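Re: weekly structure request thread

Next one in the queue (387 aa):
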Amino acid sequence: MRLLHTSDWHLGRAFHRVGMLGAQAEFIGHLVTTVRERDVDAVVVSGDVYDRAVPPLAAVELFDDALHRLADLGVPTVMISGNHDSARRLGVGAGLIGRAGIHLRTDAAACGTPVVLRDAHGDVAFYGLPYLEPALVKDVLGVERAGHEAVLAAAMDRVRADLATRAEGTRSVVLAHAFVTGGEASDSERDISVGGVSAVPAGVFDGVDYVALGHLHGCQTLTERVRYSGSPLAYSFSEAGHRKSMWLVDLAADGAVTAERVDCPVPRPLARIRGELEDLLADPGLTRHEDAWVEATLTDAVRPADPMARLAERFPHTLSLVFAPERAPDGPDASYAGRLAGRGEQQIAEDFVAHVRGAGPDEHERAVLRDAFDAVRADETAREAVR
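Done, posted below.
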């Protein structure tokens, strides 16, 4: 069976205030063409279909168009909700849409109920594990203490239990939206950490033939059977070095996996340039970036006049301007952002306690801080889910 693995469409998202809907529509067209021309048997979309819980109408219309085009091809599609999606909204009408071959999996309680497709070699069971917010799904999955590894492990126990009841030789595919150990993050993914721990080991997914991951925006191979497709478009300058693609996966009769990357259209390349303003304006080596979306970091000791306007004369698509004067990092002129760089919210809070009273928090106080941050994240997620 040939699968096309994609994720993290983020329909409705902008790139530094530049609308991306046209580029997203071009990607959808590319996906449909790939399905048709490469004889794809099933499409898997591993979460973050939309960029936010209540997407703009234009994004919903593009999603609707994508579903119709995939259904018209007669190729089954399995998709899950991600941490940016509202699972309840995305799942509305799932039963009816499923009759057209578009299978939406947004309910944590249904992790062990697969979509079963068949090819010449037998059945392939597709298990959709939507994004599992630990505080919201731990009771559904029978987990005592909330944590990403615990809830994913419980969901996979259900998958393996169902798979054990199926005919010998049944192959298996799991869709999951999570941060798996070994994956490389970028700046455009929303933090999903709980208690300071968001990553789960790849071993959680042992026992299935292929794991189609979503959440991280770079295309990555964690093992031959566990892969991220990455987002089809770049959504931050930290992705300037990414090659945006989808995975074309062949699942053999014995469950063996071979995979090929299929490149996605690039609306405009990204470039990150750094140096003093006059040098950037004069450097002939930067000519290749004149048509790119540019993030410029200026290292001038004194902020130059009208830097954005002057940069735009040579680089008309400059979208981000960063000032990083080359001073001693611990000097009196170090910026607040610079002093916080590399510190998570837990560490910032602990440093604040130490600054105020002269001594950092003890273990009990650290636990209180962790619980407070977890409660805030869970509350934010719950509010988004019911919008």
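Residues 363-385 form the longest helix (23 residues). The radius of gyration is 23 Å.
Next request, please.
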